[in-house]
Amino acid sequence: MKKERLSDAIGQLDDEIIEETAQVRDKAGSKRHRPLAWASVAAACAVLALAVGLKVLPSMFESDNDELPYATSVTVTSDEEEPEITTATDENDEPEVTTSSDEEDEPEELPDLPLITPELEVGMGFEGHDVEDISELYNGNPWTPEFELDTLPVYNNPIVYEGEWHLPVGADYEEMENMLLRTAQALGIDTDNVTVSDNGYSEEQTLEIRAMYEKVSGEVPPDEYFYPTMLYIETEEYRISVDQRLNIDIDFTKPFVLPDGYNFGTSATDEENTEAVLYLAEKYSGLFELMGIEDPLVDTKGGSAGYSGGIACFDAGETEIESVLNYNFNYIVLYDNSITPESDLYIIRLNNFDYRGKLGDYPIISSDEALELLGEGKYITSVARYDFPGTEYVGRVELIYRVTDLEEYYIPYYRFYVEIPEGAKDGKKLYGAYYVPAVRQEYISDMTVWDGHFNN
Predict the structure, then answer these.
(1) Listed residue (220, 255, 249) closest to 237, CA to CA
(2) pTM of the predicted protein model
(3) What are φ and ψ of residue 212, in 5° steps?
(4) CA distance 444 to 438
(5) pLDDT digits over 104-162, tens only?
C-alpha cells in the first residue's frame, strides 16, 4: 500500500481504536530516540602502526657507449648481468629501451568482497554545530589519525524494512527474550517469577483495524503488521524492555540517588562524571559484565550512535579495531534525572550489537585520502543548504560508523567537521558534518551519485 493510501486509511480509523492502540503501545514503552553527541574524558588506547611496504620501480638503463650510436634496444635481464644490445641497421632509427627481470611489479590484489552502496536517503536532521571553538566537538572516540588500520569490518543491518507495508524483517523473538532475561538476571532479578510481555495488538484490536483497512482501501494488513516490536518485564524497581535490535532500556521506577560526594549528569564536569560512572560500574557490575566492559573508557556526551544527555561507557578492547567497534556498537549509556537537584540515575541503556551480519573485512583508505575525496565532492552531508567552503575549513576528522535503522550496511566513514563561514552567528562558528566512506572506492558502487545531499 502506498503512503498516501495508508494515510487515508489511518485517517478513517475509529478514534477509540486509535486511542486503545496508543495506550497498548505506550504501556509497553516506545524506544527513546535521542540525538547524541560525544565528548571524551578517557585516554585513547595505544596505537600499533601497521607498516606498508613500498616497491621501487627499476630505473631505465642508459648506455654511455659512444661507439654504439645506433643501438635500437637495450634489454636488462638483472642488476648483475650485462645488458643485451641490438644494433640498428639504419642510423635514423630511434633507440628503444626495454627492461625485463625475474621480479615484475604486479597490480595490487584486493580481496573479493561484495560491492556496497551507502544509503543516501536517510534523513539525519541538520547536523550542524554552533560552537565558539572546535575543541567543543572533541569526544571520546578512541580513533586518532595516527591509527594505520588496513581493514575494517562491514556489517549487514540485521533488521530491514520491506514491502508496501514497510515491515521489519529479521527480528529474532527468541533471542530478544533471551537478552531480556539475561539483563534481568544481571540486575539480580529472579527470572523464574517474572512475566514477559510485548507491545503487540490485542486480538480485538487486530480484527477491528483489519476491518477498517479493508473498508477504506480494500486491502488488509498482513499478519506481520501486528507483530510486536518490543518485549518487556516490569518489577517494583524496573521496567526492562528489549527492541528488535537487541538494545535494552532499563527504566527505574524510582531513580537511584548517588551517594554524597558524587556529581553526575549534564551539570557535572568531565572528571566528576568519570568518577560517577566508575562508581556505577561497580554498583551495576552485572550489566557491565553482560556487555563485556572490563576496561572502561568514559564518554561524557553519550556516544556516537545518537543518544544525547547521557554518559557513555565502552570497553577499551585489546586492539585498535576492538576499541573502534566497541565505541560505535557496544556501549552503556547512563542518564541522570536533570529536573532534580540530586545526582540520580533513572535510565540505563545497553547498546548491544549483533555482529553475525558481517560481510567481511574491507580495505580502507587513510584520512588524508578521504580529505582529497572530500575536496572532490565525494561526500554526503545534511548541511547541503550551504556551499562546501573547501578543505581548508576542515576543523577536525574522526572515524565512525553511521548506525541508523534504515542503513542497509554499517560501513566506516570519516566524519569531517567543516567550518561554514556563512553560517556563523551570535559570535559562534557553525561546523557542518561531512561524511566520506573509509572503504576503498573499488568496493563502493556509484560514487558519482553522491551530490552532497541527504534531505535538503
Answers:
(1) 255
(2) 0.73
(3) -65, -45
(4) 10
(5) 566 678 999 999 987 665 555 788 999 999 998 888 999 999 987 999 999 998 888 88
- The CA distance from 134 to 157, in Å, is 32
3-state helix, strand, coil in the chain (%, to 5): 25, 25, 50
Cα–Cα distances in angstroms (integers) from residue 387 to residues 105, 379, 422, 450, 456, in the given order: 43, 13, 9, 15, 12
In single-letter form, the type of residue at position 219 comes to E
Q: Do the domain assignments include residue 192? A: no
Asked if residue 182 is part of any domain, the answer here is no
Task: Give the whole-angstrom CA distance, residue 63 versus residue 71.
Answer: 9
Residue pair 130/287 in contact (Cβ under 8 Å)? The answer is: no
Q: Would you say residue 248 lies in a domain?
A: no
What is the three-class DSSP state of 363? strand
CA 274 vs CA 41, 45, 279, 296, 437: distances in Å = 7, 17, 9, 10, 32
Q: Is residue 35 part of a domain?
A: no
Structural domain containing residue 406: 128-156+363-449
For 411, the grid coordinates are 560501513
Contact of 401 with 413, CB cutoff 8 Å: yes
- The answer to whether the beta carbons of residues 314 and 304 sit under 8 Å apart is no
Q: Could you give the residue ranges of the DSSP H alpha helices within 195-284?
A: 203-217, 270-283
Output the CA torsion sign for 118, 124, 129, 135: negative
